[in-house]
TrEMBL record:
Its cofactor is Mg(2+). Keywords: Hydrolase, Magnesium, Metal-binding. It catalyses: alpha,alpha-trehalose 6-phosphate + H2O = alpha,alpha-trehalose + phosphate. It comes from the Bacteria. It comes from Klenkia soli. This is Trehalose 6-phosphate phosphatase.
């Protein structure tokens, strides 16, 4: 990986994009309690302060939720709802379509004790982390997936099934942001299935470093074991980029 960091040090502009939950914040039962790791705010600000470097959070969360839960604001960029929502706004037709989806899925969730429906700007998320009856949890996720229309995109995650009302993904989002910035170097970190779209989109791009956090098959170039590994990698990256 040190060759990747040396290569990135010589490129500008550089986009450093990271997934949020499971990468910069530990997974918790209650999504609102998944705050940044202690080391993350200062380290992310160091990176964002390096010349020609933009730091973006790319999440399944809505942008407002991502700002509130992370506690971050300027100069960071935010991409929410798995790439369907940017920090410059959301199409009203997308919100209307989301409301129809809520009407279809809410009764399914209400029928399973411990399950929760999270309503996001361009998606709903069926959460089953706190469902004690695991077969009921699995059955709920299947029923919710079946309720999705052909124009929706179902995205399984960790104890969650997201149903998005657009076909945007983190891959198209990170490429769009990189293009907007004219980025010559791109770093992307992620831990979940939806991050694979970003790893794949960047696979053949010169100056791209993709990092998988934790176990599981991946298209990422390198892997770190956990959030402490994320911290160590971002420390090295900040030093290489002069932050
Ligand atoms: O793309 P990410 O930043 O990884 O966001 C993915 C989903 O993260 C949140 O759910 C996950 O984290 C929760 C808090 O730790 C946890 O309770 C849940 O089981 C996880 O699936 C968030 O609530 C979703 O909106 C995001 O899409």
């Amino acid at each position: 990986m040190s060759a990747d960091l040396t290569d990135l040090a010589n490129r500008r502009p550089v986009l450093v994009a990271s997934d949020y939950d499971g990468v910069l914040a530990r997974l918790r039962d209650v999504p609102g309690e998944a705050v940044l790791e202690d080391w993350a705010p200062d380290l992310l600000r160091r990176l964002a302060g390096a010349e020609g470097v933009t730091v973006a959070l790319v999440s399944g969360r809505g942008v407002d939720d991502l700002r509130t839960t992370s506690g971050l604001g300027e100069p960071f960029r935010f991409v929410g709802s798995h790439g369907a929502e940017y920090d410059d706004g959301l199409d009203p037709a997308v919100a209307a379509e989301r409301d129809l989806l809520v009407d279809a899925v809410q009764p399914l969730v209400d029928a399973v004790p411990g399950a929760r429906l999270e309503v996001k700007p361009a998606a709903v998320a069926v959460h089953v982390r706190t469902v004690a009856d695991r077969p009921a949890a699995a059955a709920l996720l299947e029923r919710a997936a079946a309720a999705a229309g052909p124009h929706h995109t179902a995205k399984p995650g960790k104890d969650v099934l997201e149903i998005a009302v657009t076909d945007a993904d983190k891959g198209t989002a990170v490429l769009r942001l990189a293009e907007q910035l004219g980025a010559d170097g791109v770093v992307y970190l992620g831990d979940d299935v939806t991050d694979e779209d970003a790893f794949t989109a960047l696979a053949d791009r010169p100056g791209a470093l993709t990092v998988k956090v934790g176990d599981g098959d991946t298209a990422a170039r390198v892997r770190v074991a956990d959030l402490d590994g994320v911290r160590d990698l971002l420390e090295e990256l900040a030093a290489a980029l002069g932050g």
